[in-house]
Amino acid sequence: MEHYEVAVIGAGPIGLEMAVALQRAGVRAVQIEAGAIGATMGWWAPGTKYFSSPERISIAGVPLVVEHEEKATREDYLRYLRQVAGTFRLDVRTFERVVGAERDGEGFVLRTAKSAHGVGGEPEQRRAGALSAGKTPGVATVAGREYRVGKVVLAIGNMHVPRLVGVPGEDLPHVSHYLGDPHDYFGRRVVIVGGRNSAVEAAIRLYRVGAQVTLCQRRTELERDRIKYWLLPELEWLIKKDQIGLHAGVGVREISANAVVAGPVEGGGEAVSVPADAVLLLTGYDQDPELFGMLGVELEGDERRPRFARETMETNVPGVFVAGTATGGSQQRSKVFIENSHEHVERIVRAIAGRDVDVREKAVFEGNEES
Fold first, then answer.
1. By the 8 A CB rule, do 307 and 328 touch?
2. Strands ordered across the beta sheet of 278-281
3. How does DSSP classify residue 311?
């Protein structure tokens, strides 16, 4: 059994920033990640761009430099996270999933197993489906490790499994909750269900690669305050020019091998059948509360947010902290992002190590000190 002062679970941006801050504070920590670092970004479509500017999503005082001074793509940011982890020589145990967690005296014992993938994406969706059906999920039960730790920081994110629509045909092979490589949709009739950023961005990108795109959304009008400001005018223009189809105020009733049937949300009126070679149900994602349950963390409200003290980020379970987007539960309206989670790291280090850190302070590396 290995012994550490702190275990950081999750190696996304805030998890990595947490590990760096603990290292700077002289706290011996181990980091455990079910997949690769930045696993959530791993299932984003190639070329997906961040909403925020590079300086707002940089971590640990390491500048995020992007070609042509643009906003970072998925590939830019994954490369950057590898740089941060390598620069600080973080001890990240990748493709290792926590399958057991319990209090032991004043600390905790964590049990892990090898994992074939991280959180999010279609493999995780299949795993969640197996769990809900009472089947054995795709995680090895051998060759795992045990850790005894004093404290646990949960930086597990919140986009773990898709929010299902719950209609016949949702499990057909041409239906997905994830946008793949846009190239694969060339020349195909694609129905996209959803009306927020992921759906809008997918619609525009697939139109550009030569797909015939139709959007179906429950709201009667576009959610102007929820769509990235540079995407909205382009979408509106494409709809006006009949380059992208729009059925508003409708809900999906059924998906067949070659069509999506949608009808008015308010009832009445006739349903429409929209031809479809591929269907993208981009209706949002929910957080997997499994680790919270193992550790006894209470969840509150409709979004099932973990209960924690804002000044320390410590949950109702002494010694268990939460950071990053994990604090928001299954956010219906996103309020927690990378850029407003840096303070979570500072609060946790202050609570654990009794000292202040500035996570945005410029990192100084060996050989780069000013003379």
1. no
2. 175-176, 278-281, 189-193, 212-217, 244-248
3. T
> Alpha-carbon distance 265 to 269, whole Å?
10
Local confidence pLDDT in tens for the 371 residues of the chain: 899 999 999 999 999 999 999 999 999 999 999 999 999 998 899 999 898 899 999 999 999 999 888 899 999 999 999 999 999 999 999 999 999 999 999 999 999 999 988 887 787 777 766 566 555 555 444 457 999 999 999 999 998 899 999 999 999 999 999 999 999 999 999 999 999 889 999 999 999 999 999 999 999 888 888 788 888 999 999 999 999 999 999 999 999 999 999 999 887 678 999 999 999 999 999 999 999 999 999 999 888 999 999 999 999 999 999 999 999 988 766 688 899 899 999 999 999 999 888 887 777 655 444 33
The CATH homologous superfamily of the domain defined by 2-161+285-353: FAD/NAD(P)-binding domain (3.50.50.60)
122's tokens: 């279609």
Q: Beta-carbon neighbour count of residue 181 at 10 Å?
A: 10
Q: Which residues of 323-347 are buried (b: 16+ CB within 10 A; e: fewer)?
A: bbbbbbbbbeeeebbbeebbebbbb
The Cα 157–Cα 320 span in angstroms is 15
Name 139's bridge partners. Answer: 115
Mind giving me the DSSP string for 280-294? EE---EE---HHHHH
Neighbours of 238 (CB within 10 A): 19
Residue 121 burial (10 A CB sphere; 0-12, 13-18, 19+): buried
Q: What type of residue is 41?
A: M
User: What are the structural domain ranges in the chain?
Assistant: 2-161+285-353, 164-281
Q: Which fold has domain 164-281?
A: FAD/NAD(P)-binding domain (3.50.50)
What is the helix, strand, coil percentage profile of the chain, to 5? 25, 25, 45
d(CA 72, CA 59): 14
| Domains 2-161+285-353 and 164-281 in one fold | yes
Q: CB neighbours (10 Å) of residue 8?
A: 31
